[in-house]
Amino acid sequence: MQAPSQGPDQGPAQGSGRIPAQMPARGSAWARARGQAQPASQGAAGPVYQVSLMHSVKSEFVKLTSLVSTWILLAINLVLLPLGGGMSAWALKIMAGTNPKNGKPLAVPAPVGWDDLWTSVSSMTGTCVIVMGVFGVMAVTAEFTTSSVDSTLSANPHRGMMVGAKAVVAAALAWASSQIGVLLSLGLTRLVLSPLALTPLGEGRGALPWVSLLGAPALIGAFTVLAVGLGALCRSTVAGVVVLIGLQMVLPGLLSVFSSISRLLNWMGTIASLLPTQLISDCLAAGLNQPSGSAVPGVFHPSWWQSGLIMLVWAAAFYTAGLVAMRSRDIK
Length: 332
Description:
Blueprint: H1 29-36, E1 42-43, E2 46-47, H2 53-65, H3 68-96, E3 112-113, H4 114-121, H5 125-145, H6 149-155, H7 159-192, E4 198-199, H8 208-234, H9 237-259, H10 266-273, H11 276-285, H12 304-328
Parallel strand pairs: 3-4
Antiparallel strand pairs: 1-2
Helix pairs in contact: 2-7, 3-4, 3-5, 3-7, 4-7, 4-8, 5-7, 5-8, 5-9, 7-8, 7-12, 8-9, 8-11, 8-12, 9-10, 11-12
């Protein structure tokens, strides 16, 4: 039997439902759907996607804000600042209404200086620095603990960009929480001391209000960047927190004790005055009698603004060290 002849637009599979008898027109719905399925750019090994710093920052923001620990630490930081300011103001109010000679209440409370009020506003910064330091460490180490860093680097293989995005997001969240906390602390402190008369700021202390309102949140944000670098350096939450507490609490005390033993060890007092704990305290004092720096024996004690700049150097040094470690070491 002779096979039926095939037309120019027909093939052996025509009628089987696999190949259409005629290619669809360029503007047809099938052609448009097929064109939408193609990637924007196609390389030799597959689709090519570009990852920018802004995309990485958005991704890290979503990841950090989806963690319960993030909101807990930010809430603790937010509550501690006004709590410390209120307690400090309450102590000032009690002292102003008490006779220092016999401990009896005064008929008319003594006035309180604005210097003391502004110092009370940021009095809890040293504690909040540790809380946000733990937050900064966990912003990096949490991914290594859960092994989710593999997925992160698969989506964004640029390790430096990843660490930078984590530092930006962590510092921004810490700063925002601290700024709100400082404003609440100012309101609560002013409310507690409202029945008392306030004396004006002393001569040369005009920077104290700005340092308390803006400097304290900035210092907490800078320390968070330091902690992010420390987390990238240690890659372990336990190790990072231990080093953080040692740097903030243990090391300053040891150096101060050893420097007071002999004059030959005065150089340890200089080192103690250059540690983050002392730098933050001196910067927030804004030259108010230099209360912390003069108490530590040594050769060099930076002024309040020098302390702030040196604190930025600490943050940059730890961040750079963490960045180098992240780029040079394997993630396993």
